[in-house]
Structure formats: C-alpha cells, structure tokens
Amino acid sequence: MPTLSIDWPAVHAAASVRLAMPRTPLRGRAGERLGAGTGASLEFQDYRTYTPGDDLRHVDWAAYARTALLSVRLYREEVAPRVDLALDVSRSMAVTEAKQRAFSELSALLACACASTVADSCVITSPGAAPEPLPNPEHIERFLTCGVNQSAFEIGPLPFRRRSVRIVISDFLFPHDADALISRLARESAWLAIVQLTLAEEAEPVVEGGRRLIDVEGRGELDLVIDDAAVRDYRARFTRLRLELSRAARRVGAPFAHLVVGTPLRDMARALAAAGVVEPA
Amino acid sequence: MIFTTPLGLLALLAIPTIVAIHLFRRRFPVRPVAGLFLWGVVRQTPEGGGRITKLPVTRSLILECLAALALALILAGARLSPAGVSQHLVVLLDDSASMAAAAAPGDSARDRAVRRVLAELDRLSAGARITLIRSGDRPAILAGPASYIVEARPALDAWKPEAPHHSMAMGLRLARELAGRTGTLVVMSDMAAEPRGEPHFEGGVWMALGDRVDNVGITAAQRTTAPEDNRSVVSLTLASNMTAATSRHLSVRAGDAEVLARQLSVPPGASSLTLPIPAGLPAVRVALSDDGLRRDDDVMLAEPRARIVAIDNQLREGRGRDAVMRALDAVSGVTRAASGHLTFVDAEALDQPSTTDVWRVGFGRPSPTWLAPGEPKDFVGPFVLEKRHPLLLGMTLGGVVWAGASPIAPDVVRPIVSTGDQVLAGMATGPAFAGRTAILLNVDLDRTNLIRSPDWPILISNLVEMRRQQLAGPERWNYRSGEWVRVRLDRDQKAQLRFRCGGVERTLPAGRLIEFIAPSPGGLLQILDGDEVLFEIGVNFLDEMETALGDRSTGDSGKVGEVAGLRGETSAAFDPLFWILLAVGATAMLLNWCLLMPGRSARASVSQTV
User: Fold this and answer.
1) Which residue from A23, A36, A214, B362 has the least number of CB within 10 angstroms?
2) B370: how many CB neighbours lie within 10 A of its CB?
C-alpha cells in the first residue's frame, strides 16, 4: 500500500492552529501549560504555612506583617501536555486516492497543531505497539500506510498514556457501538477529540445503478442495484451512525468533527476550530 | 482417435452452455467500499435480466471450457486408434469324453486342442481377448466373455472333457452369439464338422484334431438279483473298435474287496458278458484294464432292491377270483398280504373307506350311487382305450366280450375304457377319493371272456406295476450320466435333501417325488436326508458313440471371415489419451476452483481497483 507525499507548504499554510486544550489541569513534563501540581509559574494557587527549607522569596511578608505568621505563596506548575494522536490506518482510509490524500493531510495538520501546542506528542496506530513519539510534524508520514484489514479502534484497548490529550482520526465505517467505543477511548484521558473523515459518496451516496460492492477490508461483496430506495436506506443508516458518534462524544465532553474528503485543508482547519478541536495559535 | 461411445460427445454441449452463462451473466462494475455493512440489508432490486455484452474471455471461462471438453471426450470414450481395437477369439471346445482318448500320454485330442489354442494366443497381440466355451447340451463359458489371455490360460489347463456324446449345436449357437461380428470363431473337436452333426458349418474354422485310437469300452451294464437263489448277476456289453480279438483284464470290486477277476478275450465289435457275483454285496465297481479311453473302462453298479407289491384279493369265490390269482402267479415281485398295497374287491365295496396307501380295484356292478338308470349290457366293441394310460399299455381288447357293464352315472369315474357313451373302466373321482386311488372295472368276471384273453395277464401286470411305481425307492438303481433319476420317498424328509456323487454335491428340492439329472462323471450316487443315506444308486458313462473311436479325423475346414475386432471399451487404463484427458480435466477444475475461491476474487478485484 503506497503512501502519498504530503504537500507540506499547503499544510503549514493552513496550520495556524494549535490544540484547544482543556481548562482542567494537565499532567506532563515541564512546559508551557499549567499543570495539576504546584510549580514555578506566575499563577497564584494557594497559601500554606512556612516550613524550613522553603524558598524565602515565596514568603508573603505582608501577611506576616498582618498576622505574625510565616506563610508561603504557592504557584501552579507549568507542563507540556501529553498528546496521543490515534490514527485509523485500515484499508478503508485509503479506499480511494482522494480519501488517502485527505487523511494524510488531515493527520499532518493535526501533527502541526500538536507542535504548535508544544506537547509531548505520540502517534498510536495499533493496540499491540507502544506509542511512537512524534518529534516533528513531518515525522507523521511514517505512520500513514493504510494497509491493515481492521481498524485499530475495533480490536481492543489502545496503549493511550494516562491523562493524555487524545485526538482520534477515523472514518468509523465499521460495525460498532458508539457509546462503548467512545467510552473506551475516553477512559483516563485528559481530553478527547473525535474526527471522522469520510468521502462525500460515503456520507451521501447517489443513485448509480448496478454495482458490485466489495469491502476493502475483506468483509465480503455484494451485487447491488443502487437505486433511490437503496440510497435512502443507506443515508439513514450513515446519519444514525454519525449522530450516535456525536452524541457519545458529547457525553464524555469530547468535541466531534465530521470532515468530508474534498474540503480544502484551510476549510478543514476552520471546521476543526469550529468544533473545538483546535484553536487559533 | 476413435470414440467407443460416440453418444458421449453430447456432453460437448456443456461448452456452449458455459459460454452462454458467461455471456449472459450479470456483471456489475466493481466498486470498493469502506462500510459494506451499511449496504448489507438493503433489498436488491434487479434491473431486469442480464444483457448481452462482449464475451469476456476470462481465465475462468477458458478453464471451464477446457474441463468440459476433457470430460466430454472421456465420456465419449476417446481412444488412440491402435489401442482401441483388439482381436477377439471365440473357441468352442468339444467336451465329449472321446477328446480325452490318447494312444500315448499327452497325445489326446484334448492335448492337441490346448496346444493349438495356446499357439493362437501366442500369435495374437497382448491386448487380444479370448472366450472359451465348453460344448454340451448346456454349454458353459470356461473363460470370458472376452477375457484377457492371462485369464484364459488357467481355464484351459483345467479343462477335462468327460461329457457324453452330445450335439454341438447349442455350443455353436452360444459361440456365434458371443463372437458376433467382432470375434473369430474356432471349433476344436476330434471329429470333422459333418459327422459331428454340423454338415453346413460356416463362419469360422472347424479344427478336427482326432486320431484313431484302439479302444475297448463298456457300453451297457446291468446288475440283477435273484434273492431266492442268493445270487446276483452283472451283465456287460462291451464294444471294441479293433480289427482282431484283444485281451483285457476285468475285475469286480466291492469296496476294497475284489469279488471277481478274469482275463477276457474281447472280440471286435459288440459282445456281451455275464458275471455271477454273490447277492447282498454293496455297489460293485467293474473295471477293464486301461486303454485309449479310460472314461468307458469302468462302471459302478448298485444292487437293485426289489419293491414287493403286497396283494390282497377280496373278490368273492368264483371264476373271477381264480382268474386274478392265476394272473398274479405270473407276475414277479408280489406277495400276498392281509392289508396290501393293492386290493381286489367287488365293485360294490369301492365306496367303503380305505387308507391312502391301499389301491383298490373293483370288478362287477358298483354301488347304486355310482349307477345311472338302465340295465347291464354286454358289449363286443369297438372299445375306446386311453392308450397313454399305464394301465392299458399293451392291451387291445381284441375279441373280448365285455359282459355285464352297468350304466355309470356321469362324473363318478374318469373313463379309460369305454364304448359309445358307456364307461367300461375308469378311475374313481370325486371328493371322497381325493388322495386315494380306486379303479372300477365295470365287467362281470363270471360271464366275460376277458379273463381268457391275452389282455387279462397284461391288465393285472399293469395294475401291479402301476402300484409298484408308487412305492418308495428309486425307479431304477443304475443310470447313465444325463438320464433323469426319479426317487420316491415314503416319508417327509427330516433335513435338507441332497445327493453326493464323486466330487459333485447338490441340494434337492423338498417333496415325496425327487427328480434330477444323473451327474457327470458319475460313480456311486448317494441320496442323503441330512447325514442319513437313503439310497445308493450307480451312475455310469455308458456311451456307445464315445467308445467308438474308429471314426475320429484330423484336418481344418472353413475359413475366417473379415471381422472388425473388439472395441476396447474396457482398456481405458491402457490408453494414454484417457490419462491425458483426465489430468487436463482435473487440473482445469482445480485451477478454476482456486481462481473462484471466495475472498480471493474479492481481493483480486479490490487490488486491481485500488
């Protein structure tokens, strides 16, 4: 399964965004984001009684003047958040060249967003492998070979890091229970974002006549006359699938974005920002 | 290439059928999708039937057509020409005993016939077929039909001619049927076609392989017994085809004991010989010293056991009773008894009950229930006799005055002697006589001259012999091979009835009257009820035609016509074309199956599309 080269200039032009981090405290290495513990940032957190060994620069002398008690000012720590970028690299993401290109560019866009966030980013593509570090956005190209017959999200728990920020990209075109799937993805996460990428004809097929439909992931084949009734039934099922995903994401406080292949990358970034997945840098 | 079953070529219709299926099959454009499950339960609405489009010459089509072609050719029996046709030799072997006659060991007509057949087999190709038939009244197939040569050789080695003289017609008919238009017919005998009864033999080769052999044989044999003298007599008829008297040693043995030994001087032609031996001996074997034909040199003779008929004469005193007694005195094998096998009574007593074992013969006026209105009359003829009835054998009733014949009611007796519509003698019928025998002689013995005519002792003798035939035991005690043996039993059998004669043993049907053909080669025949020996009888060759070995001849006659040879339908295993077609067909089917395996075709389509 060949990979497509990414038009990085176009990606960088569109990637003036960073991840929309949650307001809840995060965990991670020292960085630019406020952490859950005390640290050395400028944001006041609390007072506590002075104990020998405390930094005298943090003693609140004004309070000592008023109360004759030595107390110390505590400030929030600053951390670099852990970001897990979970990619669906099954064959369905490359069912057409356009979809594979769109998937690659979307992944690159989000990799750039991670870099803008100064996050400890990793890429997860399968349940059996450890998260792969993503030192720079261009490194994402190593993970975009869509050759497996089953989505990683179907199989079982993914090796997410604890309290990590998680962005999941897939078409979600496999049989699943949306509530169970989203709950599993959100378990012990700091934040979760769901991005669904589909072809236009996958979202809204049109009447085509007789077709032999062959599932690219080997789930069978079907000779079918795609007429009005077939299209109507299909659309109803796809809409229900998308709404259930959206509803399940909303239950766990995760933003959900549905992107359609063929949308310009800049518009995709806007759509992600509108959904709350990213924010202007 | 030839086709052994050309109708199998109809299977080639499978090829246009396959092409039509491929031509009309609905072929939708392939569209790979990511979520087939979203389409899965959508109802399918066909857009009408398939459309004729350009025939896609796919690998599947080629393989299917190839497999159909190969299988059709196999069904049609496609063969390479040289191996498809094999020669078929049909040999009719004369099974008469004279074929075994030999002046020197290994030089009999049978030995020469075997050598000729083997020479023919060596001349034929390896794939040739042969059918061996043994002649006889019931010809038998020794090897075949159309067996391979290796199968025929053991049957030929085991063949031993020992049948009595018989016609070759039945064997020839069977041989011609089996030869048909594809086989070559060869007859092997020790005589030429004409003296063997086939003066117009055609359509094959008649090989006469006989030779004159000096022979003395027994052509008839009889053993009689005179118990009152305590002696038994063996009577032999000998035949010699030699031109001068010759000497032979004759011995008579009963079991292991030699009863009699004698050196004979046998004159040319037929001669008779009588040998007295002690009575009461078991079956004796009479043997001449060996010569050209051993088959006719000995006989096995069982001692006859007389079947005595017990007579009870209950006629009233008078002329008739005396006449019966005088006639019985002239008949052998009878005795007087109070309750006999045969009872002579006045006709009025025929109505009285009796046992089934007792035959009753009534003379005179029967009881009134048998009579029709009218007075008794005398008749001088002409008399109508049922000639086939054993009671009337040898009788003419010439010059007889049948006196005192009363009118008989219809359906009372079955007439055997009558004049006009008057029944003079007959067998009683009706439900009262079911299973019993009663004979009415509607004659007044005191007035008729029947008792003084020559027919009277014949009548009485016939009555006695009729009754004797119904007594238990064999009809005769010594038979020729091939004759019908009749044995009457006086009781139901306890176990399976069978007979044993030499190496032959067969079961017999259940019943009081047993009939079977005396088996060949003969010897002492025992009739057994389970393990109990009921009777022992002698079965002997005794064939004058086979003993006369002076007219045997040598020479071939006839010619072999053009024959097509036998199509080798069964030689598929030897035909390389069969195996080639089988391999091609099987390979094509296997490859096609691999090509159309579920999953493989889908993956191939997707990879081509993606």
Assistant:
1) A23
2) 23
Chain B residue with Cα closest to A240: B38
Of residues B219 and B292, which shows the higher confidence score? B219
Is a pLDDT exceeding 70 seen at residue B175? yes
Confidence label for B208 from pLDDT (cuts 50, 70 and 90): confident
* CA max distance for chain A: 88
Note whether B315 and B413 are same-domain residues: yes
**The one-letter amino acid at A249:** A
Both tokens of A69, joined, read: 């008690």
Rounded to 5°, the CA angle A16-A18-A20 comes to: 135
Q: Which CATH number do you get for residue B99?
A: 3.40.50
Q: Tell me if B124 is assigned to some domain.
A: yes
Cβ pair A214:B602 closer than 8 A: yes
DSSP B570-599: GGGGG-HHHHHHHHHHHHHHHHHHHHT-TT
Mean per-residue pLDDT of chain A: 85
Which of residues A210 and B454 earns the better pLDDT score?
B454
Per the structure, the count of domains in chain B is 3
More confident residue, A92 or B201: A92
What is the C-alpha separation between B276 and B96, in angstroms, rounded?
33
Q: What is the pTM of this model?
A: 0.49
Residues B58 and B98 in one domain: no
pLDDT band at B244 (very low <50, low <70, confident <90, very high): confident
How far does the CA of residue A107 sit from the closest CA of chain B (Å)? Answer: 19
pLDDT confidence of residue B224: 84
Please name the member of A175, A225, A241 whose beta carbon is closest to the beta carbon of B47. Answer: A225
Which residues, including other chains, have CB under 8 Å from residue A175's CB and lie 6 or more apart? Answer: B37
pLDDT of residue B31 exceeding 70, the answer is yes
Residues B10 and B130 in one domain: no
B206 and B343 inside one domain: no
How many Cα neighbours within 13 Å face the side chain of B223? 30
Upstream peptide bond of B521 is cis (omega within 30 degrees of 0): yes
**Average pLDDT over every residue of B61-79:** 89
Put simply, whether A55 touches B (Cβ < 8 Å) is: no
Q: What domains, with CATH codes, occur in chain A? A: 8-27+80-280 (3.40.50)
Side chain identity, residue A89: V
* Strand pairing class (B473-474; B438-441): unpaired
Q: Does A200 touch chain B (CB under 8 A)?
A: no
Describe the strand order of the beta sheet including A209-215 as a list of residue ranges.
A221-226, A209-215, B30-33
pLDDT of residue B223: 86
- Does residue B365 sit in the same domain as residue B421? yes
Q: What CATH number does residue B374 fall under?
A: 3.40.50.880
Q: A34-48, pLDDT tens digit by residue?
A: 555 566 566 666 778
Residues B58 and B32 in one domain: yes
Q: CB–CB of B33 and A174 under 8 A?
A: no
Q: Give the pLDDT band (50/70/90) at residue B587.
A: very high
Is B527 inside a domain boundary?
no
Would you tell me how many other CB atoms lie within 10 Å of the CB of residue B30?
A: 15
B171 in any annotated domain: yes
Claim to verify: residue B316 and residue B458 sit in the same structural domain: yes
- At residue B572, the pLDDT reads 65
Among B26, B36, B41, beta carbon nearest to A219: B36
Q: What is the pLDDT of residue B602?
A: 47
CB contact under 8 A, B605 and A212: yes
Q: Domain range holding B418?
A: 309-469
Is the same domain home to B139 and B154?
yes
Pick B33's closest partner by Cβ from A95, A229, A237. A95
By C-alpha distance, the chain B residue nearest A174 is: B35
DSSP assignment, residue A137? G
The pLDDT tens digits for B491-539 are: 777 888 888 888 788 888 888 888 888 887 888 888 888 888 888 889 8
Backbone angles phi, psi at B280, to 5 degrees: 85, 0
Residue B225: inside a domain:
no
